[in-house]
Amino acid sequence: MTARALAIEVLARVEATDAWLTPVLDARLSESPLRDGRDAALVTELCYGATRRRLALDFALAGVCDRRLPTLEDRVLAALRVGAYQLFYARVPARAAVAETVEATKELGLARAAGFVNAVLRKLAALQPQPLPPDADVLQHLSVRESHPAWLVQRWLAAFGRPRTEAMLTADNRPPGLVLRCNSVRTSREALLGLFTEAGLQPTPTACAPSGLVLQAQGRVESLLGYREGLWQVQDEAAQLVVHYAEVPKGARVLDVCAAPGGKTCQLAERGPVVALDLHARKLEGVRSEAARLGLAERISLRAHDATHPLPADLGPVDAVLLDAPCSGLGTLRRNPELRYRRQEEDIPRLAALQRQLLERAQAAVPPEGLLVYAVCSTEPEEGPEQLARFLDDFPAFTLAPPEGAAARDCPLEKGCLRTLPGPEGRDGFFAARLRRR
Q1: Which of 199, 256, 430, 431 is most exposed by smallest CB count within 10 Å?
Q2: In the annotation, is 377 catalytic?
């Protein structure tokens, strides 16, 4: 299967089944080996690019298509998006973009639709510049130009102002770098930087996280130097900063209430024992496998549990509790581009209510003078600062306890809380609060 045909098939499957793009793409690339790495890179760019730019592509397509886009067959609509993405965002000559996309349509057994796809893309190729709503309508212009839902753009404009909002929107549409966290039980960041430098992979240390590095590499993570040896783990810098900000004392026994997929669990385990809970036993198996690869399995105790219910009485005493709570995920849209179209504004209060319930359960396990760290990968105040304020009102035994050690210097803090936003800094959006029981 050619690269464009495979991209069309992946996008159509994601659209039809509400699956997540990354696992579908990874599975199809492993099932259908392409001629060389350049074809795999093209499939990846087309899939992620067409997903990130979907609102802008659909706006342009709707202006030249004589049928309503939602009425089109999934694969035909995916073919139009792949073609339009090449015309407006990829370094592909217009003639080749149209012709190769039409051939890919035929390759997928859609010869009956090839003439339609050809006609629409040829009309689109004649348009210069790319069609967009007028600049005067700031909200709609930004929403379409940067392919984010209008309700989210409106929220960000109100909360952060136009310059920062545009920086966040732009960052969400850039492919994220590969960020790793050094496994401190097996190596150091300096040693890892040297190892990758010798291999010609151009690593750079993360700006704030003391154990992180950014790698210029493509292809499967599992094939990278040091993966099999467990020298590092993939983890965004903002996620690394949550555990750094927590400043849990070395050797402390930590309860991780919502552990999967396990990045912070393993990061905590580098310093001491961790009891890891998660609702889904299947996800805990992924944590178990990753912990074994990193040589941390003996430090982590895994247990399936619904943390909206009272915590098990036999967990034993802990020194600190981490609640990395389920949230809207709106700080991770550059990594999960399809999420921006699936998340609705009404999801935020529903998720905030779940977070309150989990906080109520988690705080019960915190001993006197113990720590409670609350974190979400969200940009929204209901899940961050407002959630914290409500918790402190409801549980006056807790007080905000910002870090005093290296994290106070390294972490971007806002009123004592960790706060990162998508933008030129190259990090996901996170909020975290470090609390101590009096």
Answers
A1: 199
A2: yes
